[in-house]
Amino acid sequence: MRVKGRETPVTIYQPLGEALTLAERDELDRYHDALALYRERKFDHAGAAFKALAADRPELALYVIYAQFAAVAPHQTGAALRRSRRSS
Description:
- By secondary structure, this protein is an all-alpha fold.
- It has 4 helices and no strands.
- The chain is globular and about 40 Å long.
């Protein structure tokens, strides 16, 4: 995540509590898999994975946002991506 006043991205962590339920562990594993696909630029697969997560948890906007990013990312050129990163 980019933080105002910093040049390099900052990692943000969210505490998940002491113990996760089986369903929470499954969701977290699916999220990590989808994020890995996105970072590998496998946008079709990442988008499908995030859409499935969003269908299961519609109250979490993060999954919808990643699915939307995956849908437009292949259409952006490298220059467009660099511009959007600088403006963040």
